[in-house]
Structure formats: C-alpha cells, structure tokens
Amino acid sequence: MRRTPFLLAAALAASTILAPAAKAETTLLNVSYDPTRELYQDFNKAFADHWLKTAGEKVTINQSHGGAGKQARAVIDGLEADVVTLALAYDIDAISEKTGLIPKDWQVRLPHNSSPYTSTIVFLVRKGNPKAIKDWGDLARDGVQVITPNPKTSGGARWNYLAAWGWAERQFKGDEAKVRDYVRAVLKNVPVLDSGARGSTNTFVQRGIGDVLLAWENEALMSSKELVEANVEIVVPSLSILAEPPVTVVDKVAERHATTKVAEAYLRYLYAPIGQEIAARNFYRPTDPEVAKKYAKQFPEVKTFTIADAFGGWQKAQKAHFTDGGTFDQLFEKR
Amino acid sequence: MSKNTSMPTHSRRPVSEPALIRWALCLLTLAFLGLFLFMPLAAVLAEAFRKGTEAYFSALATRETLAAIRLTLLTAAIAVPMNLVFGITAAWSVAKFDFPGRSLLMTLIDLPFSVSPVISGLIYVLIFGLQGWVGPILADHGVRVIFAVPGIVLATIFVTFPFIARELIPLMEAQGREEEEAATVLGASGWRTFFMVTLPNVKWGLVYGVLLCNARAMGEFGAVSVVSGHIRGLTNTMPLHVEILYNEYDFVGAFAVASLLALLALLTLAVKTFLEWVHRDEIAAALR
User: Fold this and answer.
1) For B286, how many CA atoms within 13 A lie in the half-sphere containing its CB?
2) A43-52: per-residue pLDDT in tens?
3) Residue B278: its chain A contacts at CB < 8 A?
4) Are residues A149 and A164 in the same domain?
C-alpha cells in the first residue's frame, strides 16, 4: 500500500542525483577555517558583484568552514575546493605534499606570504577581569581555567600554543625545561579542547565555561564588540605571535572545474582596497598600509614575533610540536 | 513502542499496588518526561520564536536553509525505501528459514546500532576518499561519493538499516511458519505466499519500522557530519545546518531549523497514532 509512492520517490530522487548536474553558472568552493564565516559572507557578495561587472559572469561562491586541520584533511580526502583560505601555511603544505594538487612553492605566488590579512592571539576574559589575568604567565596559575581548541584539528589552537611557547622561551631565556613546565601547567588548566576556534568561543561565551579564552584577535574583537551581552573584555599580552592565515588556489581542482581564472581573481580581490576594507571591518588586520592606517584605531597595540623568526617556519614548528609524539602530545599526556 | 503489538492483552483486574505507590510512579514518570522531553522542546520553540513569527519564517526561508531541508528530505526518500527492501528481505530470511550463518547475519544487522556513527562515516571516507581504496579510481571518472550527496545517502543508509529489520524479526519469529507452510502446501508460489500471508501479518511492524527509520534518517548527525564536507547550500543536512547557524550566533535560525526537525518527529508520532486509531479494530484482532 505504501509501496508505490516510495518507489516513485526513490526513482525521482535517483534521477536527480544521477543526472549530471547542469551547471549554468560558475561556482567556486572556498574551504576555509573556523572564524572566517562572517568575513567571507561579506567578501563573497562583494566579489560576485565585482565579477559580474568586470567579467560579465555570474559566480556563486560556496563556503565550508571548520577547524583548519580538519578542513585540510577533507581537501586531502577529496573535498573539491577551488580555493583554500586556511589558518596557517602548514595545512596548505600538507595538501600540497599529500595530493600534489597545489605546487610546492604556492606561498610565493601572492604578496605577504600569501596572507592578505593577518591577526594575532589575544586573551578574552570575563568582564572586570576577576582573575586578574594580565599576561601569559597568569595562564599557568592554579585555579585559572583556560579555553583553547585542539591543536591537532584547529589552526588557531596551534597559533595559541606557539604564542605561549614563544613568550615562555623569551621569559625563561631559552631554558627548555622551564618552557616545558610552563606549557604543561597551562595545558593542565584546559578543561575542554574543541575542534575549532568558533567552538571554543562558544564554549567560553555562550556556555560560560572557563576564565580566559585564547583567541584570534578578530574572534575576540567580534565577541567583545558584537556580542555585548557576552560581558567579556580583551586582555592584550606583553608579547604575541603574528598570525598569517594564507590563501591559495587549488590548481588541479580549479583546472578540472575550469575556474582557474575566477579563482585567481577571487584571491587577488582580497588584496584590493575593497577586500582589505571588508577584512578590516571583520577585525582582521589589513596588509594594505592605506587601509591599515584607516582602521588602526580598532586594533590594540600588540608586540609580535613571527613564526619564521621564533620557530624557523611552519614545517619545523609542526614537526617539533604537533606531529604524533611532538611536544603537545608529550606535555598533554603528562599534564 | 512496537512492543505493544506483540504483548498479550492484560486482564481487567485492577493492579494490586497501594494508591500511594501508583501515584508516586506516575508523578516520577511525568517529572522525568517534563524535565528531559517537554522542557527542552519548549526551550527550542521559545528560542525559535524569541524575535517573533516573522523572524522565524524569514530564518527558514533563506536559500541555505531551504537547501538543507531539501537535502534532508531527499536523503530520507532514498534511504528509507532502500532499507525497506533490505529490512523485509533480511527479516524474512532470518525468521522463516534456517541456514548456516543465520546468527552471523543477525549480528551483522545489529552492527550499525553498536558502531559509533562517527566510525560509520569514517569507513566511507576510508573507502571513497581520495586517499582511500576506490576513491582515486572513481575520481578519475569524475564520480564523487564523499563530500557529496551519494556519501550522505550511503552513511544514512548504513546508520538506519537495522531499524526496519529489527522491527520485523521478532514479529515474524513470534508468528511462526505455519501459515506460510499451509500456503505452500495449498500450492501458492513463493511470491504469492509473501504478499498474501507474510506481509499482511507484519504490516504494523513495518509501518513502525519505516517511521522510526525515517525519523533517524532525517536526524542523523555524526556519520553525515564526517562525509558531508559542510558545504552550505550543497551538502548540509538539517542537523548539520543547525550546528552551523548556532556557531554563527544566528540563534533564531538555529532553533527555527531545530524546531522544524522536532516538528517532523512529532509528525511521525502523529501519523503513527492516527494509523493506530483508524485501524484499532484490526490491531486488536491481530493481538487476539
């Protein structure tokens, strides 16, 4: 009795799936990391307008967001991204190494190490800073709960970890045993590891867990300014890391989709004044000096070091700290 | 809930427990239901309508939410009929025939119940992923399985396939083989026996099985999350879309979609109750 409608539905469904998707318009898939949701929502709209005007072609940009490591893994497993805009260079290196979809020298193809915008790592604390958290050292104190995502899956978490490590190296004048003790003490204070930065922000802001959130500056500015009811404030540590989230075209996928030209234009538009303005409005630090000057007031002054200076680049940092058995595994296990 | 159908009817003798215990038990059940069922449901609805009905409907009418609803319905429309065929076949062979490996088959049918949904998703990534066993070959021919609709359907079928079989096996076993044997002796063909004897006998179990299977197919999160790729508007099912909206601080949107999922579940329940009511005489007869 229920058979006919079911079979009909199944046949219909099957035909919609099996029929080759008729693509009337160009689509791009941008696989990005966790906190860039609002940024690319704005930017995609602007780019679609721009592309329609200049190239006369309608383009739809699809988005996928998640922890940067997880997203890179998905692209490696076959998620067909035309462009990737991830949290750190190592994840794009990993795609390049494991699949060959991207040439090895991808990072020199666009200005500023292929990072159209930068950010840094700051602290978000409860209003009035009841636990008096001022600098990295306070994170290791007993009774301070620290919220940070899982460095295995999240790019932001890796920047957090390296920022803490870099501060400790200077603080303890390179005494590695002391640096390790410090980082272990911080990890001991972490009650939950979410898989992405946005998950951690929600844990801290929405669920009210923890005393301090280690966050992307853009994420911290957005939660403190746009979620007024969240009752949180920003603490800028004495020293932090310059986070450079890179972007690149996934060459072989774009070739297959015949989207290379529009994908390249899409990324270049991030460097254009409009793209830079949109980044700044979403609290990412623009690399264009003009736009940077215009928005200088909204960013706190932070002293930063770069990954290249402190760790010799992402390849080395990843191997020493985040591969299986790296310092994160060693310290997290014995915390 | 399906157990009702196979339970013997109770005699009219009133229960012998003192009134106090009866009331206490009733209150306990109600309190439990209130705390774990009605309160969360009310919270979902309250959040969804916090900014008024207009905000509620405009949240549902976005391109991405509509796409998520479509994908969820499509997935269920494929997964449920497939599992209907599979469930009937499996239950029929297990309950009506003896063959070597019968208990192994029973265990296999139960497997998706015992495996974590995340693992169910991962096995498809391992098989159909670009680094997997058959993924590279399929990719060369332009066939996409994971991070596309087929993968989502596959994962859903895997997770939901015990529902109908599990519903039918005890029923068929309880009914025994006499009627089928009688039909065969009277000269009915295998198909005729199946359609005229076996199927009518398990009709109600089948309906419950389909409803349960459908509810789970629409609500599955874990397995689908692994194979989806989370491309909004393309490979986002309703449960995944709820998470995305929540993560974007769009609480009205998130809870509006959640309320829709809850509504689908309630609808399922209503259909079941309605069918029971319409066919109450028939059900009572079947139980006798």
Assistant:
1) 19
2) 999 999 999 9
3) none
4) yes
